[in-house]
Amino acid sequence: MTVVFRELVRKNKQLPLEECIQLLKTEKRGVLALLGDQDYPYAIPHNHWYCEEDGKIYFHSGKSGHKVDAFMRNPKASFCVYDQGYRNEGDWALNIRSVVVFGKIEVVQDHAWAMEQTRRLSYKFTSDSAYIEKEIEQSGSNTLCFALVPEHICGKLVYEA
Which of the following CATH numbers is that of domain 11-159: 2.30.110.10, 3.30.470.20, 3.20.20.150, 3.20.20.70? Predict the structure, then answer.
């Protein structure tokens, strides 16, 4: 079965894929949306790492909880990232670029790869390599690394007026 994702209605607002990828690489956080308990949407802020090597978006967390239960039950997810926006001179409204990624979650089984992605994600927040290595050494065995494997990426520029 081929999945067909909706096209943007206002195509003139659509961002090129390269710009979407750049937002995924540079923004530190987004909102991960899953199908939670009793099929209620469950959306949570989450930091992430976009890996250019394989095109996946990596996350790390504890090994249990609502989020983990949700994606283990149903791996379909979406992830939304948006920037701080900008104002045109003399205008009060923001122009905001956003990206939505649809795909499926997979748990990273290779521990070395999982810790490398966790390390890369950590460098988005600090350049203190000693701190990062200490945290990975102390908490790495209790860390679950998972990836969103994109099936569709779409971005747009929204004018907030």
Answer: 2.30.110.10
